[in-house]
């Protein structure tokens, strides 16, 4: 039997076994109905996002994030800031201004609407510009499912998100905005 297939099968079985275990052991950054503030270490950006929905716990989600250092050629971030707050119970699109990359997330839960407000922590890298941008498909694919994004290719970065809120199901679906960044200083700002 092909060794690569054995490794893949073992990995899939381990994933299924882990999913059937208690989801509380995933290193979540929040508890249900709690706010959170997550920031990557300096010089790193978000590369993976995972969430788990529970109707019984306020129609809320547990969240976890992973970071990765940016490529050396991108340099150090010259400025970081919290972008605009995106209100609970609304549909919105948010992209880091000034060509920033997402390096953190904070959120506050609102019991009155069973939803959260969101804010991205953005970092600006010199005068690099985004290109080859795309939106992911809906994450999760269906409301109330577990959601997971892993940036598919090294060299792509999360710049923002578009989200749709279902007032009936009290949950959100996300489309993350992924872009590459130029290897050279560009003349444009605020793309």
Q: What does this protein look like?
A:
This protein is mostly beta strands and 191 residues long. The chain has one domain. Helix content is 9%, strand content 45%. It has 1 helix and 11 strands. The protein has one helix at 3-20; strands at residues 36-39, 44-54, 60-69, 79-82, 92-95, 101-110, 115-124, 130-135, 147-150, 156-166, 171-181. A 4-stranded antiparallel beta sheet has the order 1-6-7-4, with no helix packed on it. Strands 5-10-11-8 form a 4-stranded antiparallel beta sheet, with no helix packed on it. It has a 3-stranded antiparallel beta sheet with strand order 3-2-9, with no helix packed on it. A hairpin with a 4-residue loop joins strand 10 and strand 11. The longest helix has 18 residues, at 3-20. The chain is elongated and about 50 Å long. The chain starts with a helix and ends in a 10-residue tail after the last strand. The model is unreliable at 1-21 (pLDDT under 50). Pfam families: DERM. This is Dermatopontin. It is found in: Secreted.
Features:
single chain, about 190 residues, mainly beta, 4-stranded antiparallel beta sheet, 1 helix, 11 strands, about 10% helix, disordered N terminus, Dermatopontin, disulfide bond
What is the count of distinct domains? Answer: 1
Order of helices and strands: HEEEEEEEEEEE
What is the total tally of β strands?
A: 11
Major β-sheet strand ordering: 1-6-7-4
Detail the poorly predicted runs.
1-21
Strand content: 35-45%
- Average of the residue pLDDT scores: 86
Estimate percent helicity: under 10%
Largest sheet: 4 strands, antiparallel
Radius of gyration: 18 Å
Shape: elongated
Structural class: mainly beta
Q: In terms of quaternary structure, what is this?
A: single chain
Calculate the terminal CA-CA distance, rounded to whole Å. Answer: 50 Å
By DSSP (H or I, 4+ residues per run), the number of helices equals 1
Subcellular location: Secreted
Pfam families: DERM
Signal peptide: 1-18
Protein name: Dermatopontin
């Amino acid at each position: 039997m092909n060794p690569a297939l054995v490794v893949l099968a073992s990995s899939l079985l381990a994933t299924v076994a882990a999913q059937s275990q208690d989801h509380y052991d995933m290193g979540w950054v929040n508890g249900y109905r709690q706010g959170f503030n997550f920031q990557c270490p300096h010089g790193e950006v978000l590369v993976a996002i995972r969430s788990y929905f529970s109707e019984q716990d306020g129609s809320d989600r547990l969240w976890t994030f992973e970071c990765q250092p940016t490529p050396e050629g991108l340099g150090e971030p010259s400025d970081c800031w919290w972008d605009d707050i995106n209100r609970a119970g609304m549909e919105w699109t948010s992209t880091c201004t000034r060509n920033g990359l997402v390096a953190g997330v904070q959120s506050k839960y609102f019991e009155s609407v069973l939803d959260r407000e969101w804010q991205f922590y953005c970092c600006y890298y010199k005068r690099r510009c985004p290109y080859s941008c795309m939106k992911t498909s809906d994450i999760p694919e269906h409301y109330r499912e577990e959601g997971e994004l892993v940036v598919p290719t090294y060299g792509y970065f999360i710049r923002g998100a578009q989200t749709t809120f279902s007032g009936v199901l009290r949950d959100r679906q996300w489309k993350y905005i992924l872009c590459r960044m130029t290897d050279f200083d560009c003349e444009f700002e605020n793309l």
